[in-house]
Amino acid sequence: MSLTDFNAAGPADAAAAVRPCLDVDRWVNAIVDARPYPDLEAAVAVARSAADPFTDDELTIALSHHPRIGERASGATAEAGFSRAEQSGVSSDADVQRRLVEGNRAYEKRFGHVFLIRAAGRSSEEILAALEERLTNDAATEKSIMADQLRQIAVLRLQGVLG
Prior knowledge:
There is one protein chain. By secondary structure, the chain is mostly helical. The chain has one domain (3-162): Oxo-4-hydroxy-4-carboxy-5-ureidoimidazoline decarboxylase (UraD-like). Helices cover 64% and strands 0% of the residues. The chain is built from nine helices and no strands. The protein has helices at 3-8, 11-18, 25-33, 40-50, 56-63, 78-86, 94-111, 124-134, 139-162. Helix 2 packs across helix 3 (25-33) and helix 7 (94-111) runs parallel beside helix 8. This is 2-oxo-4-hydroxy-4-carboxy-5-ureidoimidazoline decarboxylase. It comes from Mycobacterium aquaticum. Residues 7-159 form the Oxo-4-hydroxy-4-carboxy-5-ureidoimidazoline decarboxylase domain. It catalyses: 5-hydroxy-2-oxo-4-ureido-2,5-dihydro-1H-imidazole-5-carboxylate + H(+) = (S)-allantoin + CO2. Its EC number is 4.1.1.97.
């Protein structure tokens, strides 16, 4: 959807266009309600602002839509398509996959939720290094990093939808 079409769309259609970027009602509503935008940068600025901070409930909801890093999202939804594209650079090498499975398991045991990282533009080794480093974080530090990663993912997706 072009930015012009997004600006002209009804509220329900506009919300449906951006919801796959981040399924958090407050965030979606903030972006839809601030229309019209003169340019993509203005929409991105609202998206960043609305995503800072996230509540604990919003983080939980958002995480429920993200597969483990290294796992291919299934289905024909826009969210699944975003995830597959974002993780397309993750190697299918058996050793990388084993390390991701082990790292995901350790992360989930430590923090109680999936490891979230902006995978787009990162190599498997960069992702694995970040996973190993983040396993050393305390819960508050990790929550802050995770929220930032979620913001980055949402903004990249929004740029793709409206760009």
